[in-house]
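Researcher: Structure for this, please.
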Amino acid sequence: MATLPYGVTAELAYTALQAVNTRPGTLEGHSLPTGLLIGSSSGSLDMATGSKRTPRRNATASMPRNQFDTAFVGAQLLVNAGAGARVAGPLWIDVEAKNLLDDRTMQDLFQYPLPGFSLAVIARARL
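Model: Predicted structure, token format:
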């Protein structure tokens, strides 16, 4: 994590996993390689009003969909963003946008499509 000017912070994380089935049998030697790269940044736009915004990007490497390495989920890039502001006392209004690229080709491991672009407005109170 790095602290930048104007109260902005940036974060970058990478996770890599190389799992190999060592149990004797037909699945021995098959692997499940995965990679996940997450980048985010946040900051205060106006310290007096307590507003904030957070863009976030997730990149996932291609990975096998089954135990035999015969079907794969392709690499995916997901871009999300959010903004929030304190409107009165402890009341905050947040706006979150997910899948900003509206990529409707993304799937989970079970071949279910992931949602396209979505927008949410959330009211919350910090007590």
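Researcher: Any notable elements?
Model: The two ends are 28 Å apart (CA to CA). The CA atoms of residues 107 and 113 lie 4 Å apart.
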